[in-house]
Amino acid sequence: xxxxxxxxxxxxxxxxxxxxxxxxxxxxxxxxxxxxxxxxxxxxxxxxxxxxxxxxxxxxxxxxxxxxxxxxxxxxxxxxxxxxxxxxxxxxxxxxxxxxxxxxxxxxxxxxxxxxxxxxxxxxxxxxxxxxxxxxxxxxxxxxxxxxxxxxxxxxxxxxxxxxxxxxxxxxxxxxxxxxxxxxxxxxxxxxxxxxxxxxxxxxxxxxxxxxxxxxxxxxxxxxxxxxxxxxxxxxxxxxxxxxxxxxxxxxxxxxxxxxxxxxxxxxxxxxxxxxxxxxxxxxxxxxxxxxxxxxxxxxxxxxxxxxxxxxxxxxxxxxxxxxxxxxxxxxxxxxxxxxxxxxxxxxxxxxxxxxxxxxxxxxxxxxxxxxxxxxxxxxxxxxxx
Length: 386
Ligand SMILES: Cc1ncc(COP(=O)(O)O)c(C=O)c1O
What we know:
Elements: H1 14-27, E1 33-34, H2 46-57, H3 71-85, E2 95-98, H4 101-112, E3 118-123, H5 128-135, E4 139-144, H6 160-165, E5 166-171, H7 184-197, E6 200-204, H8 226-229, E7 230-235, H9 236-239, E8 248-252, H10 254-267, H11 273-284, H12 289-310, E9 323-327, H13 335-346, E10 348-349, E11 351-352, E12 363-367, H14 372-385
Parallel strand pairs: 1-10, 3-4, 3-5, 5-6, 6-7
Antiparallel strand pairs: 2-8, 7-8, 9-12, 11-12
Helix pairs in contact: 2-11, 3-11, 4-5, 4-10, 12-14
The structure holds pyridoxal-5'-phosphate (PLP).
C-alpha cells in the first residue's frame, strides 16, 4: 500500500503530537503545566448545556440532521451578526453552520483554489490554513506579520504580479498566535486592495468576543460591499467556552456559501440536531457571562505579562485573544529548542513560534487557559529556570 504523496506536503496538527508527550510526562508523575492549549478551562453557560441535554432526550433528535431544516440556526447566526456588528446576512443564502470553524476553514480551499493557484497566508498563522491550501493543490504565498507593523500584513509590499495571481487572502484578528488586533480601517484598506486585484477575502474571527480594555473586535463584513469580496468564519468554541462541541459558521459571499454547502453535502450531513438547538440557545440567550469571563482572562493576562517582564522578557499587553506572544529571552534564537529545554527543565510547555511559520521564529506562545494561580506558578518556575 502506498499513501498519497500530498500527505508529505504538510505536518499533522502539532497539538495532537504534543498531547501524547505531555500525557506521558504526567503518567511519569511530572507536574506538567501545559500553556499550549487554546481550549478554555471554563465551561459553557448553563442555558446552553441545559438545551443540549434536553434535546438529546427527544426521540426525534437522532436522525440525519439534514432531514431537519437548519434554518432556525442560520437565522440565529444572522441575528447575532446583526446585533453585534450591524451586518445583515440572508440566513438562507449567506450563512452556513459548520462542524467547528476548522471544518470550513480547511475545506474552503477546495472551493476557491484550482491546482497551482496562490493563496496569501499570514506567517505566522493558525496551521490549518496552510494545510488546507496544500491539500487543495494550491500554493501558499506567505505574508510576514511583523512586530513593526503591529503584526498586520503589509498589503503594499505584496508584488502586484503576485496579487494578480492570488485567488484568496487569509486574515485573522484578533490573531492567533500573535494576539494582535485590527481596527475597521485595516479591513477597509483590505477590501480596497481585494477589489483592485479580485482576490477573495477570508476572515477568521473566532476570538471576536475575547477582548479587553475597551477594545471591541470588528468584523470584516462591516465594510461596505464586503459580501461581494469574501466571507468571515466565527465559532462558539472560544466565545462560548465550548471547543469540544464543534460548532462554528461562515457568513458572507453567496457564491462561496453555496460552494462550501456543496462540498459539505458530501463530507458531512450537517450538525447534530441537539447541537443546533443549543447553539441557538447560546446565540439568542444572555451573553452576560462573557463580561466576567473576559475579566478573568484579563487578570490572567496581567499576571503573565508581569511574570514575563520579571524574567526580562518584554511583552505587550494584548487587547484580544487569550494568548501572549512573547520574544525569546536574550541569547536564545531557536524557539523549538528553547521550548523543549523549558519543558525538560521545569515541566512547562509553551508553543515555539516557529511552529506557526518562519516569521514566528524568535517567539513563543502562552495560552491563558489555566487558573491565575497556576499561571503564576508557571511564571515562578520560569524565573527560577532563567
Ligand atoms: C485562529 C483560529 N481559527 C480557527 C480555530 C478553530 O476553531 P474551531 O474550534 O471553531 O474549529 C482556532 C482554534 O484554535 C483558531 O485559533
